[in-house]
Structures are given as structure tokens and as C-alpha cells.
Backbone:
């Protein structure tokens, strides 16, 4: 269902932006695309997808990140990145890897991941959580239509079609709810259907949940751990983001992603530094 | 407030059990104590404390694990363990490390951590979460007084004074609530006050939350990420454990720890394999 313009790459925008090139048995390079940036640094969710893409290339039997823990050591910039993977343990149906991403020989990400095959998992589901109740996408607020200053500082938001539930978008009109909750819909702007790599990008694509607490700076992520739990069905993904513990100059941000079949397909928690001022 | 018996080590039971011995600038050894075991394997929470203890020894300015992501590669047993630490990045007030724990040259744990100084963090608190409401410890169920068969398979529970809220302990009488929720009180059995190392142990000390869903096997943890957010006040710690997404043969288990001053001092999420049968 990809909606491509004439002359565009046969890969969609997202697939092109997260492409990696093999450099050795264990290493890859990538060209980070500065259009996936926020506040002058390449977005952490986009980087998750690239790290997972490199791992997938070295883990054919277990191509999906069942769990991926990423530590952000410093900002990444558009341009070349080098990715080194190291197999730590290979099991029957899963494999655990360490992976480092560096630019100009300086590490900007270090991560651990256990890879598996989402499509081969048992299909039992006993989830007690409920998907967020959202108005139809047409009734929600398009983030890509935010004021020009906002888009300029966050070109990332144009890479997605993100629609915020008006109930949780008061911050955009200067009326944050104070609950620490954002909800909305997300899909790739290029029209490609979601896969496990896109889910990783979606987990850190929305504006920071701190906006709903009236704290409007972008917050640097220290660590983000993602759990991927099922192959997403085609269509819109529902997202729910919330924070409950703001203390010690840090906050946690939880994100849940629900697919169009009503399954909780991804969960993440990140620890971020609280913006000053 | 340590309650020691005559002839006991000047360190309490917990401090002795998590002691590490320096072997080189970057490596340590430890004697894992099989009394901290469940279902034939050394407990994952106890192992977190040992990993964090080794890191503390190599990070004097940033002694606390602000965030620790641990991947369990296989069961650990009582006996010698070797711990190798590697500094990845040192910042002004924090440092990120990789750490591996192995037994007989086989890795059983690989982890990443960002260390900091909890006592030096800003003291702003804007937490919106509320501590679990619990009856007094005397009105709760003492886990260490469980039937002999249970204790035999889980000697770990005698290392703690754990009291379960009767509202969430129906599983013990064969009447799990089906909510996927356990709540209770915890402190060290040796009477030592909680510190940041004990918090890590507490995060994975309670019976699996799956017991409340009528699934009574112990579940192997694949990954656990812990966030430590404040130095705990002396006294009992309140714990709340819950799961919301049981699917694909795995479940997540979230744990919150609240100190006697009402602060959310630690949060963790683990991904575990669902027990079969």
C-alpha cells in the first residue's frame, strides 16, 4: 500500500533512511538522515530502527528485537555512522547481541538486544491492558501541521503522520492537562505499513510527554528499553505515552503501541533527563 | 538497626552475600550464595545487587545504578562468579559501563548501566503515581511462613521479610484474583536498612506476578531494566508488581518500590518467558 511519487526510490522513505551497508562479518555503516532530527540531534527512535536493522542482518533466524536496551551516550548527527555487532549468546530460537554505534570514532549509542522471530511465537494472548480510546484520526490534531517554528526545530515530525487526541493535546494551545499523558495515532508518512523496525521508531516519535506537564524543552534520553511482542497488523498504530515519576532531575516515559487488530504490539520505557528551565 | 546473632559476620547477611573481591583494575570475583535461589537457580534480583556492587567499586564518584539493564543468558548457580566491567563513557556526574558475569567461563549475565550519585540529585519531586494502599505489615501474609515445599523450592524468600497484602495473596489459597497484581511490604531478613543495592534485590524478590493469574511455575527472566530514583528512607519498602501484556509466550512484569517517606524510589520492568504447563 506504499504511496510513492514518481522518481522516488523503490524503497519507501523510512526503509531508505534506515538502510545499512555491510562492512565486515560483524560491522555495518549507515548514513544517518538529518531530516529525522529533533532539536539538532538525530532522533532516538530512528536510531533504534537502524541498530535493529544492523542486528537483523546478522541474525537471519531471529530477525526481530524481542527486547532492545539502548543507552544514549551523546547526540548523533546526520552523516556516516559505524555499527559494530557482537554475538554474546545464541540459543535455539533467540540470540543476544551487543551493538555499538559511533560517529567519527566516538560512541553515541551502546545497546544490548535479544533477537527472536515474532512471527514464530505462540499465539496465546491474555493481555489485560486496554487500548487507548481515541477519536477517529480525522478528528485528531495533525502534528505535521504544527507552527513553522516547531517544525523547524523538529523536522522529524514530518516523517510520520501523527495525530494527537485533542483531549491530550492541550499543550499545543498552552493548556497542558498536567496529567503527563499523550495519546494519538501514528503511521509512516511514506505510506508503508508498520513492521517491527517501524514500531521501534514509533516508540520515540511523539513529542515528549512532559509537554503535557507544561515543560516544553526536548528531553535527552539516557536509556530506552523496547519490548516487541507481535508482528503489527497493517494500518494505523495507536500510541499511549505517560510519565508517573518525575524526580531527581529525571523522568520515565512509558510508551505503548497498539495495532489495528487491538494487540499491544510494543512497549517501551525510557529514562530521560528533565529539561532545565 | 542490624539485628545480629553472636558470632555472625560484622556485615549483615545481605552485605556478606553480595560482597565482591577485586581481581584487577576492571574485574572482580564473587561467591554466589545458593541460599538466594529459586527453583534451582540463583535469583535475578540478588544478581543485580552483585553486578551493581562490582560497578560501584569501579565508579567511586557515581556509586549508584541510575539505570541498569540486565540480560540473563542462562541460570547462575551457587559458587564462584567472575565479573568483568568496562567503562564506555565517563561524563561529568555519570558514567556508563558494560558488565559481564560468568561462571566456569560461560557468561550468565550481560548488562549495561549508567551510574550516578543518587544523594547528589536535585530534590524536585513531581511524581503523579500513588503508593499502593496496604494493610499494616502485621495484617499481611508472611511469605517466609509459606508451606515447606514452597520454601524448599525457594529458599530465597527466607532472606527477606516479605508480607503480602491479603487482597493480592489469594493465589496462596488457590484463589488467584486474575488481575495480575501482587502488593506487599519488604525488608531484609537481617534487619539492615534498605540502600540502593538492596532496592535492586527487592525488585525481583517477590513471587512472580503470574501466580495471581493462576500460572504457578517460576518464570525465567530474559531481561530486567531497573531505574533507581532516590536514596530510600529507612524502614519498610512497599512493593507493587503487575503485568498487563501476556502474549507470544512472554509477559512483562513491572515492579514499583516506595520508601517509608512515600517516594517512588525504584521502578523496573522485566520481560520473562511464560512458564509452560
Residues:
Amino acid at each position: 500500500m506504499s504511496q510513492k511519487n514518481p522518481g522516488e526510490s523503490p524503497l519507501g522513505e523510512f526503509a531508505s533512511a534506515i538502510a545499512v551497508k555491510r562492512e565486515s562479518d560483524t560491522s555495518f555503516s549507515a548514513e544517518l538522515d538529518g531530516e529525522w532530527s529533533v532539536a539538532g540531534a538525530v532522533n532516538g527512535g530512528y536510531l533504534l530502527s537502524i541498530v535493529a536493522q544492523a542486528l537483523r542482518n546478522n541474525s537471519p533466524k531471529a530477525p526481530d528485537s524481542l527486547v532492545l536496551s539502548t543507552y544514549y551516550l551523546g547526540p548523533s548527527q546526520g552523516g556516516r555512522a559505524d555499527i559494530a555487532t557482537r554475538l554474546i549468546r545464541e540459543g535455539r530460537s533467540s540470540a543476544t547481541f551487543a551493538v555499538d554505534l559511533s560517529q567519527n570514532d566516538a560512541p553515541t549509542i551502546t545497546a544490548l538486544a535479544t533477537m527472536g522471530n515474532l512471527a514464530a511465537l505462540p499465539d496465546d494472548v491474555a493481555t489485560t491492558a486496554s487500548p487507548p480510546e481515541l477519536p477517529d484520526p480525522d478528528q485528531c490534531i495533525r502534528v505535521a501541521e504544527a507552527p513553522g517554528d516547531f517544525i523547524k526545530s523538529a523536522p522529524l515530525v514530518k516523517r510520520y503522520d501523527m495525530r494527537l487526541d485533542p483531549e491530550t493535546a492541550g499543550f499545543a494551545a498552552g493548556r497542558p492537562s498536567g496529567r503527563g499523558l499523550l495519546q494519538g495515532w501514528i503511521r509512516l508518512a511514506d505510506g508503508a505499513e508498520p513492521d517491527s523496525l517501524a514500531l521501534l521508531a514509533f516508540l520515540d516519535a511523539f513529542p515528549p510527554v512532559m509537554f503535557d506537564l507544561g515543560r516544553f524543552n526536548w528531553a535527552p534520553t539516557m536509556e530506552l528499553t523496547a519490548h516487541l511482542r507481535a508482528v503489527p497488523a497493517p494500518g494505523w498504530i495507536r500510541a499511549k505515552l505517560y510519565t508517573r515519576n518525575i524526580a531527581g532531575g529525571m523522568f520515565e516515559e512509558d510508551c505503548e503501541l497498539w495495532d489495528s487488530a487491538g494487540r499491544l504490539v510494543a512497549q517501551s520505557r525510557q529514562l530521560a533527563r528533565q529539561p532545565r528551565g
